[in-house]
Amino acid sequence: MSSTTVDPTVGPAVDPAVDLPQPSAATVLARTCRAEWSRLWTVRSTWWFALATAVTVLGLGLVLGIDVSDAPPDELPEGTAWRGGSITSTFGLYGLLALCAVAATADHATGGIVPTLQATPRRHVLVVARTVVVVAFATLFGSLVVAGSSVIVLGFAPEMGLPVDVGADFLADVAYVYAASTLLAVGTGLLVRNTAGSLVAVLGAMLVLPLMLALLPFQWAVDAAGLLPGTGAMRLLAGEAPVPLSATAAGVTLGVWAAVAVVAGAVRLVRSDADR
């Protein structure tokens, strides 16, 4: 019977796949979030969309402030300076939607999704990290520039005031709409995997279809407009929508659309070939 001699200076062989400690799920998620943050800012379109959104929102705040400053005191618009932010927030929303749709589809368009998944083979971790990073940034950034536009209006019309309690309620609505809407954009991007197609689908559901259906002389079209996410977003941001809708119904409608979109996008990324 033959025997195996083990060199004592070398020691027994070690299988790294078995014996090396594996990183925890939290560690992998944190690393992936850092990678997604870096990827977000290496895409040139992120800078352009962020700049365009800030210029649009703050520029409109400046225009509104100048317009208010020229009005006689007895003709000032009703409400506080936060009213200016509610007007500019609707325009800022569309820039954020474009930013998120492009961020979700950029590496599918370039083929970079293949090395991305080689570095992060746990696809559900990639879905969570990409969604959290993109949506969190868009929501925080959008809320800040909307608050900034309200401050600009206040600078031209200090008599309008900027009460904290009103601002807290208003910015909470803005943050919810921005978070749900950008979640919808990211989910659509993961599902469609095409930048142009994602932009058309998201902007159609958020802007074009609600306005178009509400103008048609058919009750079914008006009812359909009330079920679209863009109608809910307009109601919460501007206080009015193309069709009558309560704030609760608007929030639920927008939230359901966002949840369905991100689940559908996640399922496709996890279950199907990433380069198709």
Provide a quick synopsis of the model.
The chain contains 11 helices and no strands. The chain has helices spanning 16-19, 25-42, 44-69, 82-110, 113-119, 123-156, 164-192, 195-215, 219-226, 229-238, 247-271. The protein is globular and about 70 Å long.
Could you explain how this protein is built, in words?
- The chain crosses the membrane at residues 47-66, 86-106, 127-154, 174-192, 199-222, 242-270.
- It comes from Nocardioides renjunii.
- Keywords: Membrane, Transmembrane, Transmembrane helix.
- This is ABC transporter permease.
- This protein is mostly helical.
- It has one domain (31-271).
- 76% of the residues lie in helices and 0% in strands.
- The protein is built from eleven helices and no strands.
- It has helices at residues 16-19, 25-42, 44-69, 82-110, 113-119, 123-156, 164-192, 195-215, 219-226, 229-238, 247-271.
- α4 runs parallel beside α7 (164-192), α7 crosses α8 (195-215) and α10 (229-238) crosses α11 (247-271).
- The longest helix has 34 residues, at 123-156.
- It is globular and about 70 Å long.
- Residues 1-11 have low confidence and may be disordered.
